[in-house]
Design a protein that fits this description.
By secondary structure, this protein is an alpha/beta fold. Helix content is 36%, strand content 16%. The chain has helices at 74-83, 115-131, 146-157, 174-177, 182-190, 196-205, 211-226, 249-256, 260-267, 289-302, 323-334; strands at residues 11-18, 32-39, 50-54, 91-95, 108-109, 113-114, 139-144, 164-168, 276-282, 308-312. A hairpin with a 3-residue loop joins strand 5 (108-109) and strand 6.
């Protein structure tokens, strides 16, 4: 879909947040962070709900505000939906949470950084003070893939902070989406003399990374996120034996406690506080995330948590059009 000519355009603001909580990250990532903020046409943002966009792996928030070929970026999508009366006006924030390991799951990690604290204690309050938007009962979080994971994880962890959440094709059902990658990960590391450090240093030295390299990097980032080792290079340790690929129970247990399906078993009732909860996934998602989504919605039904769940005939890639469903639901729920 191309941008519709004549649609009133909102205003974009590029701000910086100087973080204190990110100073402990082991990756050497910068602690000064960009956050792009969209304010809809004809408003200054005051009194409006705030939506926070958590992007997927390999991206940062400003990627969603850049020019987009053959379609709309997210601010242009908001312009259209608001102008057509399909959703009430909102302020939207796009924080840059990119890391040296290629992405973010938006939770606190001794290796990756205190990203949960960054969002709740620094970024969101900064935007709300600047534009007079959001506040209790008027904050929503949304994202796709790793960003979808971040959205549902934050809703589970902080239903007293967020009042609405939308998870598009989010990571859940970890045994289905992560374990299958372990043999491929071990083969890649074996080519680097069995050294995670040597593989990572080789990756950083490359002039061009292949898609397969990015997938290995993503797997290592998940290790540094869910089960970091402060004594390992960049905090990375694997949940499997490096020779046999057998699961290491205590390592895998640390992964599983961050699986939204597992988290919902003990925290799911808290989601009843949300005004809106939306989850979707493609029927042929190539990372098999649809099965985790089905597990999640089955559990939410058992817990009597109000939510909307949809499956659509597509895979994991290029599904930003699903925001045409989620953004109006979030905005209406918060307005």
């Amino acid at each position: 879909m191309q941008r519709e000519l004549g649609t009133p355009q909102g205003t974009m603001h590029r701000l910086t947040v100087n973080s204190a909580v990110l100073k402990t990250n082991m990756l050497g990532d910068p602690t000064t962070r960009l956050v792009d903020v969209y304010v809809p046409a004809g408003t200054d943002g005051r009194g409006l709900p705030l939506l926070v966009d958590l992007v997927g792996f390999t991206a940062g928030g400003p990627a969603h505000t850049n020019w987009k070929n053959f379609g709309e970026n997210v601010p242009e999508r908001l312009d259209r939906l608001i102008a057509k009366g399909e959703m009430p006006p909102v302020v939207a924030a796009f924080p840059d949470c990119f890391t040296k390991l290629g992405g973010n799951q938006y939770i606190n990690s001794a290796a990756m950084g205190q990203w949960d604290d960054f969002l709740l204690q620094e970024c969101v309050p900064f935007v709300e003070r600047k534009f007079g938007c959001g506040g209790p009962g008027k904050r929503g979080v949304f994202g796709k893939s790793s960003g979808g994971y971040g959205a549902i994880a934050h809703a589970l962890l902080h239903p007293d902070f967020w009042s609405a959440a939308a998870c598009h094709s989010g990571d859940m059902g970890f045994e289905l989406c992560y374990l299958r990658d372990m043999p491929r990960l071990l083969r890649a590391i074996a080519k680097a003399n069995g050294s995670v450090q040597e593989w990572l240093e080789g990756f950083f030295a490359k002039k061009k990374a292949k898609d397969g390299d990015i997938h290995v990097l993503m797997d290592l980032a998940m290790c540094a996120t869910y089960d970091p080792d402060p004594n390992a290079f960049m905090g990375v340790r694997l949940p499997v034996d490096m020779h046999t690929c057998e699961l290491i129970p205590e390592r895998w247990a640390n992964f599983q406690k961050w699986d939204p399906v597992r988290m919902a078993e003990t925290r799911g009732a808290g989601l009843k506080q949300l005004k809106t909860l939306y989850i979707d996934c493609g029927e042929i998602d190539q990372y098999d995330l649809v099965y985790g989504a089905r597990l999640m919605t089955r559990l939410l039904k058992k817990l009597d948590v109000p939510h909307t769940y949809e499956e659509f005939p597509d895979d994991h890639s290029s599904v930003d059009y699903r925001m045409d469903v989620s953004l109006p639901l979030l905005a209406k729920g918060l307005s």
